[in-house]
Write a structure and sequence with these properties.
This protein has six helices and two strands; from the N terminus they run ααααββαα. It starts with 20 loop residues before the first helix and ends with a helix.
């Protein structure tokens, strides 16, 4: 498997970030919610199995590469959530420790075209969510992390758009 499908810019660090309940509330849903990074990872891996099974090896590898990038986002968000003052529990609002993540949110379509469309729509939603977060954040260090993750989501959108355009499965 190849490495992450990521923009060339390095990721900022969560080092030096202090507890901040406001920023925590804003970024928490990106971690482990129906539209969060954990869900994206699981969905890309699930979809890659089917593309591999039906002989679309390049697409399967691309989906795995996107999943690896999403793993980096999950890692960075987990570090940031911890720095902001909450345990990085896999739920929508880690500070309160409720609304735990469920794999029921993964798009379990068995149509390859629908899988790609679900992934594309998920990336568009993620990019919009990160843009909204960027606009709401006041903490410059957290805003920089969100902005960097958003760059990857925009790259994923373009990649999936190109795959969808050419997909004949």
């Amino acid at each position: 498997m190849s490495g992450p499908l990521s923009a060339p810019k390095p990721y900022p660090s969560a080092e030096g970030i202090s507890p901040d309940a406001y920023s925590l509330r804003i970024i928490s849903p990106a971690y482990a919610s129906p539209t969060g990074e954990l869900n994206a990872i699981l969905q890309y891996i699930y979809h890659s199995f089917y593309f591999e099974k039906y002989g679309f090896h390049d697409i399967a590898e691309t989906l795995k590469s996107i999943a690896v990038a999403e793993m980096r986002h999950l890692d960075l968000l987990g570090e940031t959530i911890l720095a902001l003052g909450a345990p990085p529990v896999f739920c929508r609002f880690p500070y309160y420790g409720f609304d735990y993540y469920s794999a029921k949110y993964v798009a379990y379509s068995r149509s390859l075209k629908f899988m790609l469309e679900d992934d594309f729509l998920g990336e568009r939603q993620a990019a919009r969510d990160y843009c909204r977060m960027e606009n709401a954040l006041k903490n410059g260090a957290v805003k920089e992390i969100v902005s960097r993750i958003r760059e990857d989501e925009l790259l994923h959108i373009k990649t999936l758009e190109n795959i969808l355009k050419d997909f004949k499965g």
